[in-house]
Amino acid sequence: MKTGGQLIVEALEANGVDRLYCVPGESYLAVLDALHDSKIRTIVCRQEGGAAMMADTYGRLTGRPGICFVTRGPGATNASAGIHIARQDSIPMILFIGQIARKARDREAFQEVDYRAFYGSVAKWVTEIDDPARIPELVTRAFAIATSGRPGPVVIALPEDVLTEEAETPAAQAWTPVETVPGKAQMAALEELLGSAKKPFAILGGTRWNEQAVADFTRAAENWALPVGCSFRRQMLFDHLHPNYAGDVGIGLNPKLAQHIKESDVVLLVGGRFGEMPSSDYTLLKSPYPDQKLVHIHPDTNELGRVYRPTLAINASPIAFAAAFAARKPKATPAWAADTAAMHQSYLQWSTPPETGPGPVLMGPIMKYLENVLPEDAIITNGAGNYATWIHRFHRFRRFGTQAAPTSGSMGFGTPAAVAAKQLYPERLVVAFAGDGCFLMNGQEFATAVQYDVPIIVIVVNNGIYGTIRMHQEREYPGRLSGTSLNNPDFAALAGAYGGHGETVAKTEDFAPAFERARNSGKPAIIEIRLDPEAITPTRTLTDIREKR
Hints:
The protein contains 21 helices and 20 strands. It is α/β, with parallel strands linked by helices. It has 3 domains: 2-167, Rossmann fold, CATH 3.40.50; 184-348, Rossmann fold; 352-547, Thiamin diphosphate (ThDP)-binding fold, Pyr/PP domains (Rossmann fold, 3-Layer(aba) Sandwich), CATH 3.40.50. Strand 19, helix 20 (511-521) and strand 20 form a beta-alpha-beta unit. Helix 1 (4-14) packs parallel to helix 6 and helix 3 (48-62) packs parallel to helix 4 (74-89). The longest helix has 16 residues, at 74-89. It starts with a strand and ends with a helix.
């Protein structure tokens, strides 16, 4: 006979969980007690949104479900930001929520929430465990659901009396991973389409990739001389310095790349959904009927034909598809090989940082410096804001597993993501980028980095405004500022107050020595870049936008 709390922990151990992220609550004390005797590492966070984003990052970088525990009511609603990110980004994770006792249901008891209703449209599956004897079954099912087809977040509510009640159950067993493999007929059809193509293009996205799949698709791209782009915030799926790389198919993409995709006759969309942002509001591929012949490869049948009608739909994971595609070669050198080389040269030009701009701090030279000093395996994290353009356009990702950023455009992600990434890979450099508004949404997790001695570097690009919103505001309502100005703390002093290392960059030439001091400090560090708000994009100022030049 074991308590529900003990059965939860045993089920997690059986499914290979080595760590979890939490904010403690009295509603799941029995689980916390069972964790005391387990080998699972418990990472205590400062806010449930940050904890959920750390669990998301674990799932994002490992392909295994990240685990998060929060308490009922306010804890669960705080965590919803991380669940929304995981859903839109197709990330496997499981959120466990302490719940009121069964006897108190439907009275609007203390912090009572109907989680099936609250999370029903955001999570992949939501359940509440009423019988401790079913814990092994339902927890293992959660792992299967979170990882199969299109991965996503699962939410499990745990009534506190279920966690203290005893039951006798069979030992939990691990979930069985489900792989989807392309058929020979489908691969032959793909080969026929490419054989008759004049201007094909490949776009990589989604999840369920691994290092081998990236290598396999690289080999396939070489075989077929394919130009390759990576969907929004999936840039770690192809080496940016490879001669077949054509660029980031994200926000503000290279106009030459956009035109090339529109003019393509065959587009391979591998693993991704190609939503509103990467598709430039469904103009690169028109929904529901693209101008191009679309080959959509996705591990979930529900995504095939949902937004775009494909010419050829292949229900396969990126891992299985890349392996099958790499085994096939064209009968002759493709006629578009010269176009592929030209697209790569266009990318190199597009991704070269500018040397000028408004104000005493120039982001172009700073990005050029970082490109020279960051190791190929450095992990870059960020949230959302105009500052992220500098990363997506000018950082050249070289390896799989080096990017953690939300395709959902959620602010506040970079700092908690960096904490989780550095704990997973302590030997690697981890750099988080954040705006001033972005950092202060989950910057409290810098305290988690200090508590666990996780020496991340957070670069806070501080322009004193909610920059993206101000940019749109100046375009739509020029000169009528409302709700976008910020007064900020001294971020370097804030780092010191937490017990970390702080630096302030007020001139371009200050950045390199500040970065080296932060890196050598051995502490979690914040580098505040005081950027002129006019430097709102790499090519246009706020004044330009206001005056519509």
